[in-house]
Hints:
By secondary structure, this protein is mainly alpha-helical. The longest helix is centred in the middle third of the chain and has 32 residues. One of its GO terms (biological process) is negative regulation of translational initiation.
Amino acid sequence: MMNGPDLGSTAPSPAAQDEQAASGRDEKENNPFAEYMWMENEEDFNRQVEEELQEQEFLDRCFQEMLEEEDQDWFIPSRDLPQGVGQLQQQLNGLSVGDVHASEDILSKSNLNPDAKEFVPGVKY
């Protein structure tokens, strides 16, 4: 009986099979083509990838449109004002209010009485 053909081909017990599964053997070890199984459904895989790419492109377009709309809400003088208004703005920026010498010149040439009473509308003097 020891020399019989059944001795070398003993099937593993169910407990031994559970141990193999629990020992962390990958699907690759059981099936050498596991990493290529996606090719079995290549058309579905391609369709799924195309849908993901189209969705990403759609989201990018929406985001870009949102940024453009936001830019339109902001007031940017160089973009939103006519050309002549920009020149006027530059001229206004060049003016100063606190020029002491110019105000003294105006006062020296003035005909107004500095000692006059303050004008109040509707009051007769």
